[in-house]
């Protein structure tokens, strides 16, 4: 029975690090673009995205487990990576 709990805790640790890496990458990436780029892309402002993603990173270190807040901020980071980041990167190519 102890092996089951070891597998479960190992999986939760892997999930924690994947979510942490995703939110840190999204937060650092949001800092790399200028505020004008966000406006030109028609997205939320740079301070808004930096605050959302910064809270997402900080919340990963609060021992809540896999709570609804962590999932909500993970979704925000994934939205940034899937929608905002490509729009901002597309502005540099022109």
The global form is elongated
Unreliable stretches (pLDDT < 50, length at least 5) are none
Structural class determined from secondary elements = mainly alpha
Helix content: over 70%
Kindly estimate the percentage of residues that lie in beta strands according to DSSP: under 5%
Distance between the termini: 59 Å
Q: Kindly state the mean pLDDT as a whole number?
A: 91
Q: Number of DSSP helices?
A: 4
Q: List the secondary-structure elements in sequence, H or E.
A: HHHH
The Cα radius of gyration reads 16 Å
Largest sheet: none
User: Number of DSSP strands?
Assistant: 0
Describe it for me?
It is elongated and about 55 Å long. The mean pLDDT is 91. It has a domain at 23-87. 84% of the residues lie in helices and 0% in strands. With 94 residues, it is mainly α. The chain has four helices and no strands.
Summarize this structure as a short list of keywords or feature phrases:
mainly alpha, 0% strand
Summarize this, please?
The protein is mostly helical.
Topology of helices and strands:
Layout: H1 2-32, H2 35-41, H3 46-60, H4 68-93
Helix pairs in contact: 1-3, 1-4, 2-4, 3-4
